[in-house]
Every structure is written in C-alpha cells, then in structure tokens.
Amino acid sequence: MAIAARVDRNKYDVFRWRYELSLPKKLALAVGIACLTGLIAQIRIVIPWSPVPVTGQTFAVLLAGVILGRWWGGISLTMYAGLGIAGVPWFTGWGGGLSHLAGPTGGYIIGFILAALFLGHFTDKYIRSRSFLSMLGLMLFANFILIYVPGVLQLGLWINLVKGEPIAFTNLLMMGVIPFIAGDITKAILAAAIARGVTPKSAYNGEVDKDKWASWRLP
Fold it and tell me: Is there a contact between 66 and 123 (Cβ–Cβ < 8 Å)?
C-alpha cells in the first residue's frame, strides 16, 4: 500500500513538475519528443501498392500530448513538421524538405499536430481521461479521425494531381487506411497502457473533474 502511494505521489510530482517548467525547459522537452518522433519514423514497412508506408511514428504522436500536455505536445509535432520542411532529415526514410509535406504523406503529418493537441487537452483537463479505456478511446479517435482524415484527403488530392484523374474511394482506402488499421490499433493499445501507467490520478492543474472522477464507473 505504501509503495503504491509512493508511486502515485511520484507520478503526481513529475506531472506537476512538467506543468510548472520554465519556457526553455518546455522547449527542450518538445524538441526531444520531436526527435523521438523522427527516430521512430524510420521504422517503416513499404507497401507495394501505396505511396504511404507503415511507420512507427504514430506511437510517439499518441504519447506526445500525454507527456507534454495541452499545448506542448502540439508544439512538439509542429516542430517536427516545421524543421522537417526546413530540411532536417527526420521524415520517413531520412527525408526532409517541403516536398514531403506536399506529397502523399503530408496530410498525416498535419494530423499528427491535431492529434497531439487533442490528447494533451484531455490529459491535462480531465483526470478521468487517464484511465486505460478512456485513453484508448481518445487515442483511437485521434488516430482514425484527426490523423487519417487529413491524411487521406491529401493522399487523394496528390494522386489526382499525379494521375490527372480522381481515384475511386475504395482504392483510396486500400492505399491510405486499410493496411494500417491493425498496426495502429496495436500502437494505440500500447500507448494507452503506458499513459495509464505514468499519469497521476490526482489533480495537478485544476482539472475540471477533480472532485468527481472517482465516482465514475469506467476503470
């Protein structure tokens, strides 16, 4: 019991410390998560019928908001996108430059920023979001809506510009959605389990549900 209480206290101290960090230290953490995203982006599997590879970077994206909070997770992924456009070779395949954002995977990169902002907001505002099932639901929404929708839209536009004709919706799904579903669900489950393990179940930032979350029934 004492060990569990100590662990909970340590988690609270870490997140409170993260919340109260100075601007330079928050920037340093954001750069660190951007670098981690770039490193994991090199874990990739090329799909013969699609210009979009399977990568590991969404795992880092799903945890960025949890680790850095409401705004800084999004800022970190904005750094990842912006520095990559500027030429830092940390996009998939050690690539960099504006062509990557304008190419078939650019919409997914924009979605990374939206997903990190979304997850950081819920992590910081709602204690209840830090349960496994709540976090898994939020991460699945972030992955399949906030990342996939802009990703597929830009992929379809890119194919249209390259081929000069619209692509069938089913073919677009085969290129930009279906091959990634199983892997992304697996990454979301793992990321949600990590988030559940590292986040405190007490308020460190004036959370709106700090006096009532424990009475809710979901684990």
Answer: yes
pLDDT tens digits, one per residue of 167-211: 889 999 999 999 999 999 999 999 999 999 888 888 888 787 776
Q: In angstroms, what CA-CA distances link 15 with 27, 34, 106, 135, 202?
A: 16, 19, 32, 17, 10
Return the amino acid letter for 213. W
- pTM greater than 0.85 (yes/no): yes
Domain boundaries, the chain: 2-208
Burial of 83 (0-12, 13-18, 19+ CB in 10 A): middle
Residues 6+ apart with CB under 8 A from 5: none
Helix (H, G, I), strand (E, B) or coil at 186: helix
- Name which CATH class applies to 2-208: mainly alpha
Yes or no: say if 68 and 120 are a contact pair by the CB < 8 Å rule.
Answer: yes
